[in-house]
Amino acid sequence: MKAKTKRWLKAAGIRAMKTMAQTALATISAEAMLEGVNWLTVASATALAGVLSLLMSVEGLPEVQEAGGAGERAGKKATK
User: Fold this and answer.
1) 77 to each of 42, 53, 80, how far by Cα in Å?
2) pLDDT tens across 47-67, in order?
3) What pTM value is reported for the model?
4) Which of its termini does the chain have fewer beta carbons within 10 Å around, N or C?
5) pLDDT tens profile 11-29
């Protein structure tokens, strides 16, 4: 596996886990305020957030892009 692929997988995984944790906390808080926590709803919303985060990471991750390299998309320059 290439080093850039490993960096991308690590960065995308970290972002997905953070997104999933935020979604779980928000869903649990909202559910608890209403009636009670529906754990199936929490699990499905959390999983969906993780999948969407990974799909959004396909566009590119600033922490993986190289200046002047693959990070340039649609006329945008990569940031350091």
Assistant:
1) 38, 22, 10
2) 999 999 999 988 888 877 764
3) 0.72
4) N
5) 999 999 999 999 999 999 9
DSSP per position, 16-34 = HHHHHHHHHHHHHHHHHHH
The answer on pLDDT for 80 being more than 90 is no
Instruction: Say whether 37 sits in a helix, a strand or coil.
Output: coil
Buried b (16+ CB within 10 A) or exposed e, 14-51: ebbeebbeebbeebbeebeeeeeeeeeebeebbeebbe
Nearest alpha-carbon partner for 62 in 7, 19, 22, 18: 7
Backbone dihedral angles phi then psi of residue 65, each to the nearest 5 degrees: -65, 145
Q: How far is CA 60 from CA 3, 4, 8, 22, 65, in A?
A: 16, 12, 9, 21, 7
- Asked if 71 and 77 touch (Cβ cutoff 8 Å), the reply is yes
